[in-house]
Structure formats: structure tokens, C-alpha cells
Amino acid sequence: MIPADLSRAVVHAVRRAVEGGELGSGAGSVPERVVVERTRPGGVGEYATPVAFQVAKGAARAPRDVADVLARLLAEEPGIARVDVTGAGFLNFTLAARSEAALVREVLGAGTRYGYAAGGRAADPFCWAPFVGPRERAVREAVGRIAASQGQSYGQERAAMAVAPVARRDGDVIAAYGQDAARWAMVSVPARETPAFTPGLLVQDESNEFFRVRYAHSRARALGRNAEQLGFRAVAGEGTGGRELVRLIAEYPLVLEAAAHHRAPERLVRHLVAVADALLDHQHHVLPRGDEKPSAAHRARLALAEAAGTVLAGGLALLGVDAPDFL
Asked: End-to-end distance of the chain based on CA atoms, in angstroms?
């Protein structure tokens, strides 16, 4: 089981409990979607959801009772190693280990659509009134793309979404920093907050998160070109040593789901930065050194790097930012 499957498993468990009469038969007891997120530091397990509080309202039951029922059903799911109930009714999950090779093959097979939910799609072009400024347009379009990737609509609620303007005139910001850098800054903070523009946004080194993410993507592409010159290609495998990178790639679908649910593209921004940092650490172990011959380990490490590059390309596209192959 991958983290994205966990959300669907929870919805299925709620449906089973309702249909079995354990939580009542009210239609409102079954949510269409459940957001599962990474457990906060110091928490129990790897992932958590407060779904029991949501279900308890329709079931006329205490959240803790609902959580206990769902925990018992979810403990039977293959791929879930452990389910714990904490506090007043929080469900906490520890997943069984999953094949690294299977995850990488899934990413490379899906391409930049990796992380899209069933029914997810590329967003239709947005039409905005002429008075809508670039910051509002950047935020709303990013939210629209992410929501569409999760099969969600993004229609009338757009009018109610408050978007703070930039401190300077939008046109001046774009002229000073460029379209991509300005857009990155605009979606990097919550919509109600005013983005900050500093000279650091233009720095071409790893102190700049915007540069770092795009640079990591270009490095993934360069590794593939370099490997081809050395006579080998990527083949998904195990034991790459990129444990943190594997975890972040596996969590990417959950990040998209949470970003869509909360209408928060800044969540995707933070995740892309984490993926980029892990990839830039991993890159040093991909290619053979000196007289070393390419091995199965090198092929597997390259496949993991290409999967990370795919995640970066897909995430940047959802934010409306270009992902160059050469930087």
C-alpha cells in the first residue's frame, strides 16, 4: 500500500461500517474523500486522519467509538502494519514496507500525471476578469490545476477565496524577477498572506529554493544523459540507499490531495523543496566513479533520480512554473 491508497482504504472502511450497521445508516456518515497526512513530529505512526470526528457527527457516536470501529476494520487491510487510536479519536497508521522498485515503476509509467487521483485531469484554461492581478491569477490557477488533478471542481468557491496582493505593483514584480520566479513567490505562502520579494529570489545557487527545485529537476535530466553516454539506462530496483527520497516520492499523491482539499498550493511548494533537497543529495551516488562499471545498483539509483525529476516536473507544472531540462 502507498500513502495515497490509505485515503481510499479509510473511505472504504467507513462505508463498510455504515453498511454493516456499526455506525448507523445515515448517508452523511460516509465522506466522499478523506484527507490523510503525515503524522506530526512526536506523533504516533507515520500517517494520521481526524476522519472519526467528521463521521461521528452523522453517526451520533463519540469520535473515539467511531475510531475504534474503523481501526478494527483497517487493521485487516493488506499493506497496513498497525493502526492506533489516540486522543479523542485520531486514527494513526504505520504502513508495511513497500517495494521501492514498484513505486519507481509506477512514477515513471505515469509520468507527470503521477499523483493524480482517479478522475483527475489537466485543468481547463481559466478565464479571469481583466481586473484580476497577477498574484490572484497565479494563486487561483495553481489551486485550479491541483484541484483538477484530484478530480475536484474549482468553480463558484473561487469568488470567496481571499488572496492578498503583493506589496508592490504586480507588473513591477514580474518585470523585476521574471514570470516564473514571481509566480513561485506568489504561491509559496498562504493566499491570505502577502508574498515577499527579495534579491535572494534571483540568486543562482542552492541558497535560493526556487533555483534549487528547478536545478534539481535539470540534474535528474542530466544524469540520464550522462548515463546514456556511459552505456546504461535506468532500471527500477531495490537498495538504492535513497530512503528519504523514496518516502517523499511516495507521499507526493497525499500532498496533492491535501493541497487540493485545503486550497493551499504552498503545501506543494514545500514538498517540492524537500524532494529537490533529497535528490541533490542522492545525485552523487548515481553514476559510476573512475573505472567503476555500471551495475544494477547504478541503474536503480538512476531510476529513482528520474522518478524524483518526474515529480518535480509534475509539481512545477501544477504551480504554473517552467521546469527546464538545462539550467
From this structure: 36
Say how many residues make up the chain. Answer: 327
Q: 10 Å Cβ neighbour count for 39?
A: 17
Radius of gyration of the chain (CA): 21
* Residue 325, H or E segment: none
Distances (CA, A) of 119 to 8, 112, 148, 258: 14, 15, 9, 16
* CA–CA gap between residue 131 and residue 140 (Å, rounded): 14
CA separation (Å) from 104 to 192, 214, 301, 303? 36, 21, 10, 7
User: What's the sign of the alpha-carbon dihedral 94, 96, 101, 107?
Assistant: negative
pLDDT (tens digit, 9 = 90+) per residue, 79-93?
899 999 999 999 999
- Report the alpha-carbon distance of residue 102 to residue 110 in Å, rounded: 12
pLDDT tens string 228-243: 999 999 999 998 999 9
SS3 54: helix
**How far is the C-alpha of 137 from the C-alpha of 133, rounded, in Å?**
6
